[in-house]
Amino acid sequence: MNVPALTSSGGCRTAPVLKERGQREVFCGLTGIIWLHRKMQDAFFLVVGSRTCAHLLQSAAGVMIFAEPRFGTAILEEADLAGLADAHTELDREVDRLLSRRPDIRQLFLVGSCPSEVIKLDLHRAAERLTVKHAPHVRVLNYSGSGIETTFTQGEDACLACMVPVLPETQARELLVVGALPDVVEDQMLTLLAAMGIGPVRLLPAHRVDETTAVGPNTVFALTQPFLGDTHAALQNRGARHISAPFPFGEEGTTAWLAAIAAEFGVDKATFAAATDAPRARARKAIAQASEHLSGKSVFFFPDSQLEIPLARFLTRECGMTAIEVGSPYIHDALHGPDLDLLPAGPQISEGQDVEKQLDRVRAARPDLTVCGLGLANPLEAEGLTTKWAIELVFTPVHFYEQAGDLAGLFSRPIRRRSVLKLEAAE
Description:
Blueprint: E1 17-21, H1 33-39, E2 43-49, H2 51-61, E3 71-75, H3 78-81, H4 87-101, E4 107-112, H5 116-119, H6 123-134, E5 139-144, H7 154-163, E6 174-178, H8 183-195, E7 201-204, E8 219-223, H9 229-237, E9 241-242, H10 250-264, H11 269-290, E10 298-301, H12 308-318, E11 322-328, H13 333-342, E12 348-353, H14 355-365, E13 369-372, H15 374-382, E14 387-389, H16 392-395, H17 404-426
Parallel strand pairs: 1-12, 2-3, 2-4, 4-5, 6-7, 6-8, 8-9, 10-11, 10-13, 11-12, 13-14
Helix pairs in contact: 7-9, 10-11, 11-17, 12-13
């Protein structure tokens, strides 16, 4: 297939990176449970932690634990944290009770809310012990969702990475698409790939544990989310090969992502065009309409979700914005490099966070739009800055062609709102 290469004036892949290791302002990795428990229909997430963790999940998810969603909390009391009680025995009892009440559970994730040194439990050993006890009906895995160790999107990364070692082995040459997507977006993606003759396509995470997701030396995988560094490494350790590409945000990013996969599977130019021309045109039109208020405006990204680099590429190249600073909790060259290649030279690229220093920089820059976490948004709004909640970009369908206009709209709405408020104040 012959698809013209995307170019950028300079790019940011080799730009100096400001590395900061100070105070952070982010959600913890437990937040990923909110979308993962909906995606995996036979999974249950048991958070081993404090009452604070239970309250976080209850308030963040908008449901109560006793409403029986596919997550819950095994609360550690003071005696457990002090090492005075046999927490392993208590955990086994809670798991037995849960599985007897919920026979639909096929995968059980033990999610640590704090490092094992704090909760006095080795959840990896507990998962191995409980797997032996409840196999073959239930597979028990564990990962950390600790806010001390992770940002909030890394909860998904840790979850998927812990699944990779237990995936079945395959010698088949197959495409594995990695990253949790809303079902409607996933269906759109699979339709595009099928139109190019690419299949079968395997998914991680799959909807159910007995679906045929497997991995081996002939597996090639494409990531849909830019925060899956540990999962990327785990798949490579199983012999799979990564298809490097910009992430599928906007028309340009989606086309580049699909083109990389098409080239891997030998799809000819005519077939690629037949599958993508119509949705590309719809995406370009939708972006043009939604980004009318974005063109010529400046944007400043606080590090939050690891979506910042591909989103900055989208806003600058497709919506006409200028990026002042693009901060990300972590920068992984194998993942973020293709988007950095396309991001026009100019913005400060920063990794990690020292929140007070970054607040000083955003106040000095006075951007038209600041993308940041919930904890910073209201104070910055009070100072006259227009903000966008970074977390909304994770919970809203924003991937691929049909969502491209909605993605631009998420950024244009706060700018339009600010304009309306200024007009009303002037009157």
